[in-house]
Amino acid sequence: MKREIKKLSKRVVTGLFAIVILISGCGGEGEKEKQTSNKDVTADIKAKYAQEEKYDYTDPMYDLERDHAFKYKIDNQKFADMGVKKWTELVEVYSDSDLTKEVGAQWILDKSEKEGELSTLSVTPAREAKYAIPDKEFGGKLNDQGEYADWGNAQQYYLVQHYDLETGEKFEKPQVTVFSIKTEINGAPNVQFYISEDGFATLEWDKVKGAEEYIIFSFDENIENPESRPYISIIDTTTETVWKDVNEKDPSKNNRNFRISFGGGEDEYYNELKKKLKDGEIDKEQFVKESTYDPESDYDKEKNKYIGVIAVSKKGTSKVSNFIDKKVAAKQTPVDAATYMNEGGIRPSYNDKAKTTVDKEINLLSSHVWVRMGDGKVTQKLVTYDIKNVKETRTTVHYYKADDDGKAVLDENGKMILEEVKTVPVLSIQFNVEGTPIKGYAEVQNYDKDSYKKELKELKKRQDGLRDKTGTVNKDSNLDGKTEESEEVAEEVRDEKYDVFASNALSEYLAIQMLNGNTTVNLDEFKEASDKEYLLDAWYEALYQNPLVLGVKGIRYDAKNNNVTIIYDDDASTQRSKQKEVQEKVKEVVKEIIKDDMTDLEKEEAINKYLCSTAEYDTDALKSAEKNNFKKVDEKYNDSFTAYGILINNKGVCASYAAAFKLLADEAGLESIVVTGNLDGTLPHAWNRVKIDDEWLSLDVTNNDNEFIVNALFNIPDSLANKVLVEDDLYIMNSELSKYVATSEDKEYYHYNDKFYSTDEIVDQLVKEYNEKGSTMLRTNYNISDDEFYAIAKKVIEKTGNEDLKGTYYLGVIYLTK
Predict the structure, then answer these.
(1) For the chain, which domains are there?
(2) Which long-range contacts does 695-698 make (Cβ < 8 Å, 24+ apart)?
(3) What would you measure as the largest C-alpha separation in the chain, in angstroms?
């Protein structure tokens, strides 16, 4: 069996591509080719990663009694002679796979009275159960088992042994035994966090059998020294399986549970910085240097904050759900329109109604609104204008004296100078801000009664063109072990050279099995898979970083046989046929667009350009995903969510764009990864990071292909990416996440193409390009406000003499045209 090995950013890449032998439970009919034993493949993988594994895993222990005692024979005198002072130096218990959160325990030594006979060490629960839920009605804890009698409600625990307790010999690697406790209600809620269409932080989970109600709770955890028993606060209870953070009595408290910043955040910070620049307290260089807001400054840095759900009944409780990290959720949670950065545009929603006013020009209505998020940062979100719901009225307007920048001129008493009072016609247009609770109306004063209907249609066309393009489907992962018995496991695989992206043995093993289209995968040789967090982490990495894995719907765990079942859109034969088409297309495209003397940056730009010019975004596929709350799509759209859609059908959603880019980049010798998360903190999304000059810059090909704002998300640094691209932790192993960072701006599209100018310089450049081409698109500071944009647009109108100029801006990219 030939194997090709190379390094990819300190990650292992192998040359094995395996295709399933056609046996029961493994696919349809197909051509038989050279085969290799699956056992040999497994042994090969295990040997390659042996030195990198930090722990040795033993057989797991599931569904133990709440008060289970782990008993060991121990030569306690030997350890005393060795200077061991704490039982935790021998045996510890944790509640997380990183082994950082101690559960605590009680160690009971039963000394033998007979000389030469070993004593017995019992490791039993601590005084109080882990994740014990307060009983709001009667006080104390729900389902209280008493002191030292309950390990608690965690989904799983990690018993770590450092020594052979009988011989006193220290293990080369700590031995980890994953165990779980049998709770009165089987299983646990599997919680998903998302922002609803109307802008509310939402938790959703599948119904848990036997549950009478669900408790939503929160807790803080000390970062430096995680407490074994964090204090738990109950947020709410419900009998439903969906919960929104809505406060009916006080709308200002909506989404409050997912906020970690309650001040002015970036909006206020940036406004103060601009004042310092204007007042001469800092120069332009300092302004640019300090303009990146660090939300950590508003955080309680000593604590992590989490929200979870537990099912309860009269009999007891379930295990706790997976936890939602509030620091991550806050990045996705909208609060309100920013106060300062929207000056001149849509202002905060007092009395539940936001408002904006423009004079004459409908086409200068704000395309986006700066929205304060739960972490204090701001992001731009699209405005949807209801052009069918407009109202013609008249209003009295007071006109005050203003300077060239549109700022009010004050008299010696500091008051604005009134110049004129008029009654003018007003067109009122209702709007809402996508993915937020913000809604209101726009007023266009002195509008043209003869042309306003045409202008409204143009406004709608512009907004539709600027709409974000997203589209991933959440994978169905059920690892509770209670699935139906799995099918037969493939015993052999077929040889074919292919690069597999993986960072550990389990990830590579799962990638190879999925590239085969194998439906049943045995885990007996991978005892680390007993850690379900680790198993899921490895599966997601294998899935997202190997885009020739096509059409995976989900994963199930069969505890009886220690197998996982992979669920696909197509059978193995169909998958193989599609893989061959994709491989041939990738080679054809790279041969066409990539030249030998290209730099990595030039290769990236060529692939981005190719995808933007040949691919079409599949709006119908996105609608299908939205209709099903991003859990599934209608079968006819399956390909639009894999690399096959963009590369073969020339049509797909963001998941397809990102997968296609990675395959083309791999073939071109350009390092990249697929990233998953949310666009604008709201919509499920996929994009890429590309390694250029040792930095992993963010690239969103899907949204670079835009009629009005081109390449706004091309090689953007993290300071900008974090405003719009909120990463989750699914796409790669958690231990690897910190490696993918980018701080420099010089490879950002507008910077390296000499199309980036300061706000002081950009007017003349916009005028120059407009006069040459009839339209212009340049970039300035990412954080410009509506006020600054309108001032720039007004000056360009004055200098070009074209009062019909129209346009918009997004993250500092300004587009103006006739």
Answers:
(1) 1-55+480-568 (no CATH), 66-181 (no CATH), 192-261+300-332 (2.60.40.10), 265-298 (no CATH), 334-466 (no CATH), 588-753 (3.10.620), 754-817 (no CATH)
(2) 695/741, 695/742, 695/743, 695/744, 695/747, 696/739, 696/740, 696/741, 696/742, 697/742, 697/747, 697/748, 698/725, 698/742
(3) 106
Q: How much is the pTM?
A: 0.86
Helices and strands counted in the chain (H then E): 18, 42
3-state secondary structure 641-686: HCHHHHHHCCEECHHHHHHHHHHHHHHHCCCEEEEEEEECCCEEEE
Q: Mind giving me the DSSP string for 120-174?
A: EEEEE--SS-BTPPB-TTTSSBTT---TT---BS-S-EEEEEEE-TTT-PEEEEE
Short-list 640, 638, 590, CA closest to 619: 640
| Short-list 679, 708, 689, CA closest to 813 | 708
Phi, psi dihedral angles at 93 (to 5 degrees) = -130, 130
Long-range interactions of 387-391: CB distance < 8 A, separation 24+: 387/429, 387/456, 387/457, 387/459, 387/460, 389/429, 389/430, 390/427, 390/428, 390/429, 390/430, 390/456, 391/427, 391/428
How many other CB atoms are found less than 10 A from the CB of residue 304? Answer: 18
pLDDT at 361: 82
Record the tokens describing residue 103, joined without a space: 């559960």
Neighbour tally for 621: CB within 10 Å: 25
Q: What is the pLDDT of residue 352?
A: 60
Residues 448/360, Cβ–Cβ less than 8 Å: yes
Instruction: Please state, as a whole number, how many other Cβ atoms lie within 10 Å of the Cβ of residue 212.
Output: 11
Q: Which residues contact 120 (CB under 8 A, 6 or more apart)?
A: 71, 72, 73, 74, 109, 110, 112
Structure tokens at 334: 């909208």
Give Cβ neighbours of residue 328 (< 8 Å, ≥ 6 apart): 726, 728
Distances (CA, A) of 755 to 84, 230, 466, 598: 65, 52, 21, 22
Average pLDDT over residues 84-107: 92
Q: Which amino acid makes up residue 3?
A: R
Amino acid at 180: S
Q: What is the pLDDT of residues 264-291, one digit of tens each?
A: 888 888 888 888 888 889 887 788 778 7
CA 400 to chain centre: 47
Using the structure block, give the residue that is written with the tokens 């004055």: 798
- 808: three-class secondary structure by DSSP: strand
What are the pLDDT digits (tens) for 507-565?
Answer: 999 999 999 999 999 999 999 999 999 999 999 999 999 999 999 999 998 888 899 99
Radius of gyration of the CA atoms of the chain, in A: 30
Give per-residue pLDDT as tens, 666-715: 999 999 999 999 987 677 899 999 999 999 999 999 999 888 899 999 99
CA-nearest of 609, 694, 614, 615 to 655 is: 615
* Tokens of residue 13, six digits: 């890449």
**pLDDT tens string 751-767:** 999 999 999 999 999 99
Specify the amino acid at residue 439. Answer: K
Grade residue 227 by pLDDT with cuts at 50, 70 and 90.
Answer: low
Backbone torsions φ then ψ of 305, nearest 5 degrees:
-125, 135
Closest CA to 814 of 763, 779, 769: 779
* Per-residue b or e along 129-138, where b marks 16 or more CB atoms closer than 10 Å to that residue's CB: bbbbbbeeee
Contact 437, 334 (CB under 8 A): yes
Positive or negative torsion for Cα 625, 626, 629, 634: negative
CA-CA distances (angstroms) from residue 122 to 16, 27, 73, 91, 428?
47, 49, 9, 10, 75
Cβ atoms of 101 and 304 within 8 Å: the answer is no
Element (H, E) at 688: strand 683-692
